[in-house]
UniProtKB/TrEMBL annotation, chain A:
PANTHER family for this protein: CELL DIVISION ATP-BINDING PROTEIN FTSE (PTHR42798:SF6), LIPOPROTEIN-RELEASING SYSTEM ATP-BINDING PROTEIN LOLD (PTHR42798)
Nucleotide-binding is among the record's keywords: yes
InterPro entries: AAA+_ATPase, ABC_transporter-like_ATP-bd, ABC_transporter-like_CS, MacB-like_ATP-bd, P-loop_NTPase
Cellular compartments per GO CC: membrane protein complex
Keyword terms: ATP-binding, Nucleotide-binding, Transport
Domain of life: Bacteria
Molecular function in Gene Ontology: ATP binding; ATP hydrolysis activity; transmembrane transporter activity
Protein known as: Putative ABC transport system ATP-binding protein
UniProt family annotation: Belongs to the ABC transporter superfamily.
Length: 227, 333
């Protein structure tokens, strides 16, 4: 099914003379379970696109449909709850809550929803991420690679419709980078998690099923490399 | 709503409390009695009204589930609010999506089966047509002995081809139907590779190709030795075939917390970009396919690896050659 559909999305920052067209009439769709990489030069609009998809910024025009829900037709509260339940976000700089333990950080979306945490699901996710011995530690006691694994855990624990990652390896060395990419690839295969990754690194992009190239706010290329 | 036992009980409790309160108030004054009576009525009334709303929401969910089970799964029941009811709706929707996904997977399997059957009949038709023609030509009583042996040889070649085709297809079908019991032993990758190299050593020698193997002795994975060896052999054969004389085949293997990886690389002319997404498909023949190849070797390797909790990946370009990456995951996929 089409889990994500973008129609004529555009985003303009500023007004009049100083207006900047970050995104210009972007349209594409993603099927459930696809692993898409979005690449492009700096300033091409990749991060803006991700923010539109993640529901953290309002587009100037166009629509974003996630699981057949028009995201920007929802009000602020509904959008926040929709985001909490259907979208997992992984950032370049981890963005973990420093005063919460690893386990609390990972189960945060569920805790906010006041849902009971399924112990078995959590245990299997934790062992996949190789964090069994770190559950009670604070983020500042972990290495960069481990912190990113916690944020990945946080992003997928609620089985969101789509997982978005903005340069997930941008802050890691090459060994940790390739481990994180392998982890993302495995999550994509194990949980059939739809994955959209923004990256500079072509090696990471080559692990995806599909590569979308953005230039000057428009889609320059949309290539399927794996079926 | 009143047919629910818990509602009747609630009504009983509220009635008992109200009655007690009214009786107590009666001892105080007629005004307070009236006050308490009105208060109890209002509280009980609003409580029942709210409960009726909640039961109506639950009823709506029942109707929704009825629609789902009769096949209409395009409805969205979520409302993005806080609270248990909204979470329930969210979880039900997730299950709905899962069901709809299963349905489309089944449909896709059916289509794949139909395609596979027509592919197979096409593949068999070619050698059969050729053999029929040979048989016709052989029936000529004035045939020269040289021609006769040429035609019979041709028939023999076609028969071998059909034989190999049928047994490969049977194997592939059994693997896809998951009726093959793959053993789950701990396999040292080094001995696996050595076994897989045996049938390709001679062709490699003939083409003057070099071989390098890099990896620790203790790298291993859980799987079936013989089947995995067959998968590796198919990949090696592919590499040897498409690498020119004097080329190099490099095998590296390693293990980490997530998976065990084997990389088979060659420095041949590479696989064209347009072919890359399809090379593991049955009967797919790329532009550079060898004469007489049917396009099953890689498809078989793919199925064997996929049945053992693994994935197989290929990267290729004209300059660095082709790299096949096999990963056996430690967690179940």
């Amino acid at each position: 099914m089409e889990i994500l559909k973008i129609e004529h999305l555009s985003k303009i920052y500023g007004q009049g003379d100083s207006a900047v067209k970050a995104l210009d009439d972007v349209s594409f769709s993603v099927r459930k379970g696809e692993f898409v990489a979005i690449i492009g030069p700096s300033g091409s609009g990749k991060s803006t696109l991700l923010h539109m998809l993640g529901g953290v910024d309002q587009p100037t025009g166009g629509k974003v449909w996630v699981e057949d829900t028009d995201m920007y037709a929802l009000n602020e509260t509904q959008l926040a709850i929709f985001r909490r339940r259907q979208i997992g976000l992984v950032y370049q700089f981890f963005n973990l809550i420093p005063v919460l333990t690893v386990e609390e950080n990972m189960t945060l979306p569920l805790l906010l929803d006041q849902q009971k945490v399924d112990r078995k699901h959590l245990d299997s996710l934790v062992s996949t991420l190789d964090l069994q011995h770190r559950l009670n530690h604070l983020p500042n006691q972990l290495s960069g690679g481990q912190q990113q694994r916690v944020s990945i855990g946080r992003a997928v624990i609620g089985n969101p419709a789509i997982m978005l990652a903005d340069e997930p390896t941008g802050n890691l060395d090459s060994k940790n980078s390739s481990e994180i990419v392998d982890l993302l690839k495995m999550l994509n295969k194990t949980y059939h998690q739809t994955l959209i990754v923004i990256t500079h690194d072509e090696r990471i992009a080559l692990q995806a099923d599909r590569i979308i190239t953005i230039e000057d706010g428009r889609i320059a290329k949309d290539e399927v490399i794996r079926r | 709503m009143l047919r629910n036992r818990e509602i009747r009980f609630l009504l009983l409790v509220m009635g008992a409390i109200s009655l007690t309160a009214i009786l107590v108030a009666a001892f105080i004054s007629p005004v307070s009695t009236l006050l308490v009576f009105i208060l109890s009525l209002l509280l009980t009334g609003s409580s029942l009204l709210f409960t009726r709303w909640r039961y109506r929401e639950l009823d709506k969910l029942s109707v929704y589930m009825g629609e789902i089970s009769s096949g209409n799964d395009t409805l969205d029941v979520r409302d993005n609010q806080e609270g248990e009811l909204s979470i329930l709706k969210n979880n039900i929707y997730k299950v709905t999506l899962m069901l709809s996904e299963h349905r489309s997977l089944l449909q896709r399997d059916k289509v794949q089966l139909t395609d596979a059957i027509s592919d197979i009949s096409h593949q068999l038709k070619t050698p059969l047509t050729s053999m029929t023609m040979m048989a016709d030509l052989l029936s000529d009583p004035n045939l020269s002995p040289a021609k006769r042996s040429e035609f019979t040889h041709h028939i023999r070649v076609q028969l071998e081809r059909i034989d190999w085709l049928v047994s490969s297809l049977l194997k592939l079908s059994k693997i896809d139907a998951k009726t093959i019991p793959f053993k789950k032993d701990r396999i040292p990758v080094k001995s696996l590779i050595q076994k897989a190299l045996e049938p390709v050593m001679i062709p490699m020698d003939i083409k003057g190709q070099t071989l390098s193997i890099v990896g620790d002795d203790n790298v291993s994975f859980i799987g079936d030795f013989n089947w995995t060896a067959e998968a590796v052999i198919n990949i090696l054969k592919n590499g040897v075939e498409h690498t020119p004389e004097g080329g190099a085949i490099a095998i590296t293997f390693s293990e980490n917390a997530l998976f065990t990886e084997v990389i088979i690389a060659d420095n041949g002319k590479g696989i064209p970009k347009e072919d890359l997404p399809y090379i593991f498909k049955r009967f797919y023949k790329g532009k550079n396919a060898a004469e007489g190849s049917i396009g099953i070797g890689l498809a078989m390797a793919h199925s064997i690896v996929a049945s053992q909790n693994g994935v197989i990946d290929v990267t290729s370009d004209g300059e660095t050659g082709t790299q096949f990456r096999i990963k056996f995951y430690k967690q179940v996929i």
